[in-house]
Amino acid sequence: MCAPEARDLIVRERDAFQALYPQASIEVRAGTSRDAVSALFAARCGAGVITRELVPEERAAAVRGGLELEGYRFARDALVAVVHPSNPVQNISLPKLRAVYAGEVREWSQLAGARQEIRPVIQPMESDVTAFFNEEVMGGEAIRARILEEDSDSAVVARVVRDPQAVGYVTLAWAERGARPLRISPLTGLAYTQPDAETVYNGKYPLCRFFNCYVRTGGPQLANGFITFITSTGGQKIVHEAGLVPTSVPVRFVRRSPMLKSH
Q: Which pTM value belongs to this model?
């Protein structure tokens, strides 16, 4: 079982794995990360793919139940704040972003933008990406701003593209599909960082997270074989093609010098 935000990637990995091993049969079922962990603990699935780390209560439950787990980080992702391409605001600190969703900053002029109302967009409260936003951006503080809700990354991007006053958050793969990502700093006064594969890979971007796959020690051999494939060079290539950042193979970034002409 896997979290919805990882489903498309895991389906690609599954299809590539089964092309290599036609006798293998893997069913991919979607649920929240909590659902995936519960299914794994109850032996209702061979592997649980989640877009976060195990939380303390889950680790404690595994200890109480005498359950031994093995976890593998196989991709890096990021949460990205996006705005309309015409919006003059380029940068935002995490405290300012928190203030927008807390309803304390209500106009773009408070962020060096136009004198227009800010329209914050969220994804469903039960989604993993919103859980990450609530923890890392809001710090547990309630979202009190008047918000618009969209059900996916693609819907958030579509909303922001048609509404110059909107701001939303999406995963890294959707950071530049029509909307424009904002550079983020962890604190007001510190340097702003552009969200891209390199800054996520080296940990400089403040809002990074890992995709993890957990299996029961001594569980199904097929699950372990699938993880071996995902973390191999071929599997990590699929991670890259999906717009995420590989974790188990070395990655080299090449930036073209602005002095070089395009061909």
A: 0.89
